[in-house]
Design goal:
This protein is of the alpha+beta class. It folds into two domains: 235 residues, P-loop containing nucleotide triphosphate hydrolases (Rossmann fold, 3-Layer(aba) Sandwich); 128 residues, Nucleic acid-binding proteins (OB fold (Dihydrolipoamide Acetyltransferase, E2P), Beta Barrel). It is built from nine helices and 22 strands. The strands form six sheets. Strands 6-7-8-3-9-10 form a six-stranded mixed beta sheet, with helices on both faces. It has a four-stranded antiparallel beta sheet with strand order 2-1-4-5, with helices on one face. A four-stranded antiparallel beta sheet has the order 11-14-21-22. GO terms for molecular function: ABC-type ferric iron transporter activity; ATP binding; ATP hydrolysis activity.
Length: 367
Amino acid sequence: MAKITLDNLAHSYMPNPASEDDFALKELNHDWADGEAYALLGSSGCGKSTLLNIISGLLHPSQGRILFDGKDVTGAPTAERNIAQVFQFPVVYDTMTVRDNLAFPLRNRGADPAYIAQRVQSIAAMIGMEDTLNRKARGLTADAKQKISLGRGMVREDVNALLFDEPLTVIDPHMKWELRTQLKRLHHDFGHTMIYVTHDQTEALTFADKVVVMYDGRVVQIGTPEELFERPAHTFVGYFIGSPGMNVIPARIEGDRAHVEGGSVALPGGFAPLSGKVEIGVRPEYARLTSGEGLPVTIRRVEDVGRHKIVRATLGERDLNIIAAESDSIGPDMTRVTFDPAGVNVYVDDWRVAPGSTQPSKVGEAA
C-alpha cells in the first residue's frame, strides 16, 4: 500500500498547450492517504481515465510529479510501480484456464506454489468462479471474463495500489452489487489503496471512503458521500450527485437572506456582499410544499417513485424539484415552497462560499 501524492500535476494531449483550456487534466495538488478507497467520479471526458493512467504509469504527465510514499515515480514504468490495474473491458488470456489466468501475476513473481493455489481458490470464491477454474477463458461470456480481470487484479496482496477503470461496465446489474460488496470486503480485510473510476454515482458512493468529483478536467471536490450531498463545493457536484440533483437559483445575498424571484429565503448564516454570478443551491430533500408561507410555485406534475414523490414545479421561469414523503397529500392549494435554511448553500461563479466568507474555496487552491 502507498500514500499517493499528486504534485503540481497537469496534462495536455496537445504538444504546446497555450492556456488552461488546452489541458485535459488541470493542475492538481493532493495527497491520497495510504489504505483508503477513492472513487474518481464524473461524466465522460472529464479527465478521470487520464488521471488514472498517469498514476499507473501508462501516461507521462505534461507537468508535475507522482510520488508513492514520497518516492518520485513520475518517470518509472508501470512494472516498477507495483500496482494492479483493471480496465473497462476484459483483458484475459483466452488460451489459459481461469485458474492459470488468476495465478499468472503470482507465478510471474515466483510466488510459492502452495500460496498460489490457496490465493487463487480464495479469489475464485470471491468472484463466484470456483466451478469454472479448469475451463479455458475462450468462450466465456464478457461478464465472466471481466470477473477474471477483477480477480487477477486482486490476487496480489503486496501491491502499492489497486486501480479500477470502470470495471463493472459489462457486468450484469445483480453481479455489479455483489462485486462491489466483495471489493469493499477486500479493502476492509487487506487495506489496499484503491482508486475506482466510474461515472455512476451509486457505484462511487457505495464503494469509496472518499469520492473525487471531476468536471472539465478539474477536481472540484474531494469528500465523503455525506459531504458531497450536504455541502457540494461546486454546482456541478450538486447537479451530479443526487436524483434529482440540486436546485440552483440566481439570488442576491444580503446578510442572512437570499433574495430570489418571488421573495426571499433564510440562509444558514450571514454573508458579506458578494459579486459575480451569485446563486443558491437547495437539494429537493430540503424543499417543502406549503399552502401558506414561502415562494410561489406552479406544480407541473407529481411522480410517485415508491419511496417518495418527486414534485416537478416551476419557480418563475426556472424548473424546481421538490421531494415529498410518500404519505404526503399534495392538494391544489399547495402553491408555495419553503427551504430548510440548513440545507441552503451559496455559490459564486459556481463555487460554494461559506457563511462569513467573501470568496469561494476551490480544491486546487486549498490543497
